[in-house]
TrEMBL record:
<dbReference type="GO" id="GO:0007018">
    <property type="term" value="P:microtubule-based movement"/>
</dbReference>
<keyword id="KW-0505">Motor protein</keyword>
<feature type="repeat" description="TPR">
    <location>
        <begin position="272"/>
        <end position="305"/>
    </location>
</feature>
<dbReference type="InterPro" id="IPR019734">
    <property type="entry name" value="TPR_rpt"/>
</dbReference>
<dbReference type="InterPro" id="IPR002151">
    <property type="entry name" value="Kinesin_light"/>
</dbReference>
<dbReference type="GO" id="GO:0005871">
    <property type="term" value="C:kinesin complex"/>
</dbReference>
<keyword id="KW-0175">Coiled coil</keyword>
<dbReference type="Pfam" id="PF13424">
    <property type="entry name" value="TPR_12"/>
</dbReference>
<dbReference type="InterPro" id="IPR011990">
    <property type="entry name" value="TPR-like_helical_dom_sf"/>
</dbReference>
<comment type="subunit">
    <text>Oligomeric complex composed of two heavy chains and two light chains.</text>
</comment>
<comment type="similarity">
    <text>Belongs to the kinesin light chain family.</text>
</comment>
<dbReference type="GO" id="GO:0005874">
    <property type="term" value="C:microtubule"/>
</dbReference>
<keyword id="KW-0963">Cytoplasm</keyword>
<comment type="function">
    <text>Kinesin is a microtubule-associated force-producing protein that play a role in organelle transport.</text>
</comment>
<keyword id="KW-0206">Cytoskeleton</keyword>
<keyword id="KW-0677">Repeat</keyword>
<feature type="repeat" description="TPR">
    <location>
        <begin position="230"/>
        <end position="263"/>
    </location>
</feature>
Length: 511
């Protein structure tokens, strides 16, 4: 027996209802005739009456079915109406979400603009209070803060080296991202950028609760053992690290490491990134022996995943070398730096900034061992390469700054009057704000000359480094003021060009 639809049931019920109604009329007529006849038959009348009762019962049931069908149709119509309202509400909800996202983006942009204006205001106040930069050590420290050098010391150097003006250029500290080799979801990437912005402004009272709330929401929706939770733990650890809360940061990184090893595998690049972050954190606390195996494991993972000659492997080698250097394992330090140098030169070319930085790192290792000659060779290589990029091929008339410095040393010994420094190509222009490694190399080689008793050569390089600082400060001042006042780019470039002629003006004044 086939199953009938609701419409078929209602239609058949109405047909039956009509038939029963007709049959009822016939039975009523029949009972009327039986009661009016001369010969009444009680038995037949009883049978007809029972049939009439059954017919009326069937009519009642049929009417109930029809009414029930009508009621179900009304319910279905109401359901469709409610579904339409739900779809409309979903569309309005999606629109409101888009509006909220746009409003949040505008709010973030406004906060960035406010923060930038505050920094520019502080810088203008600083410019108004500072008049002489050459004679003020505090101004030199402020200049260092304005440099956009991405190379930051992994661990702070000891005070003795700072007194000797030795400024090695160690490799990067933490990874700039909390997740290498792991795609951060869009919502976490936005949150990460917002947290980093607050942290860079020192607004930890906003950044920390923001991270904690996001972490709590992620654990509720995705569970504790999820890569996104590890991402938030890394971000919060970076914020704690910036507040010098190393213990709390280490606990978070250990938790993130366990999650990533469980969810992504023990040899995933994101695991290597967390290992490196944890190693750097231990290094900052002076726990070099605890940090070294973590750094070595991160190196092994990156070698297996990226290949032994990948630039990220070289970065890890730099970190490992610095850890070993703090433990006076100089043979290992030299091996790691030399291998990193080979990778950078092979993969990125001899002019990549990492080449010069790694040579500075290796030279610093040589200095700690008293290998002054080897360190001097590396410093000269960095300065020679910078000279060739800035001034062209070296010849008798076109000499790098270290040759100029040594010639001035010889002239001093021969009791000859040294010519003004500005005549030697304006070498400080090759060590401006866009070449912080060159400035560092100038100071390092100058300090090395001073140890060797070559004071005139040391003064030449240190004077060049000092001029590069003032050049950088002038450029920063002009750029910020021009940006605030809306000076066109052409006018700003012309003023910078005029500023490059500063030394020629000074030379003419002295003459």
């Amino acid at each position: 027996m086939t199953q009938m639809t609701q419409e078929e049931i209602v239609s058949n019920t109405k047909t039956v209802l009509q038939g029963l109604e007709a049959l009822r009329v016939e039975h009523l007529t029949l009972i009327s005739n039986l009661n009016e006849g001369s010969k009444k038959d009680p038995d037949k009348s009883d049978i007809v009456m029972k049939n009439i009762e059954n017919i009326e019962l069937g009519l009642g049931e049929a009417q109930v079915i029809v009414v029930l069908a009508s009621h179900l149709q009304n319910i279905e119509a109401e359901k469709q109406k409610l579904r339409t309202q739900v779809r409309r509400l979903c569309q309005e909800n999606a629109w409101l979400r888009d509006e909220l996202a746009n409003t949040q983006q505008k709010l973030q942009a406004s906060e960035q603009t406010v923060a930038q204006l505050e920094e520019e205001k502080k810088h203008l106040e600083f410019m108004a209070s500072v008049k002489k930069y050459d004679d003020n050590q505090e101004n030199e420290e402020q200049l260092e803060k304005t440099r956009s050098d991405p190379v930051v010391e992994l661990f702070p150097e000891d005070e003795a080296e700072e007194r000797h003006n030795m400024s090695p250029t160690p490799p990067n500290q933490f990874a700039n991202h909390a997740n290498a080799g792991y795609e951060i979801p869009a919502r976490l990437r936005t949150l990460h950028n917002l947290v980093i912005q607050y942290a860079s402004q020192g607004r930890y009272e906003v950044a920390v609760p923001l991270c904690k709330q996001a972490l709590e929401d992620l654990e509720k929706t995705s569970g504790h053992d999820h890569p996104d939770v590890a991402t938030m733990l890394n971000i919060l650890a970076l914020v704690y690290r910036d507040q010098n809360k190393y213990k709390e940061a280490a606990n978070l990184l250990n938790d993130a490491l366990a999650i990533r090893e469980k969810t992504l595998g023990e040899n995933h690049p994101a695991v290597a990134a967390t290992l490196n972050n944890l190693a750097v954190l231990y290094g900052k606390r002076g726990k070099y022996k605890d940090a070294e195996p973590l750094c070595k494991r991160a190196l092994e993972i990156r070698e297996n995943v990226l290949g032994k000659n990948h630039p990220d492997v070289a970065k890890q080698l730099n970190n490992l070398a610095l850890l070993c250097q703090n433990q006076t394992k100089y043979e290992e330090v030299e091996m790691y730096y030399q291998r990193a140098l080979e990778i950078y030169e092979m993969k990125l070319g001899p002019d990549d900034p990492n080449v010069a930085k790694t040579k500075n790192n290796l030279a610093s290792c040589y200095l700690k061992q008293g290998k002054y000659k080897e360190a001097e060779v590396l410093y000269k290589q960095v300065l020679t390469r910078a000279h060739e990029r800035e001034f062209g091929t070296i010849n008798g008339e076109n000499k790098p700054i270290w040759q100029v410095a040594e010639e001035r040393e010889e002239n001093k010994l021969k009791n000859r009057e040294n010519t003004p420094y500005g005549e030697y190509g304006g070498w400080h222009k090759a060590a401006k704000v866009d070449s912080p490694t060159v400035t560092t190399t100038l100071k390092n080689l100058g300090a090395l000359y001073r140890r060797q008793g070559k004071y005139e050569a040391a003064d030449t390089l240190e004077d060049c480094a000092l001029r590069s600082k003032k050049e950088a400060l002038d450029l920063v001042k002009q750029s910020k003021v021009a940006k605030i006042l809306g000076v066109p780019d052409e006018n700003r470039r012309q003023r910078m060009k005029d500023n490059d002629n500063y030394d020629d003006e000074i030379k003419r004044i002295h003459k």
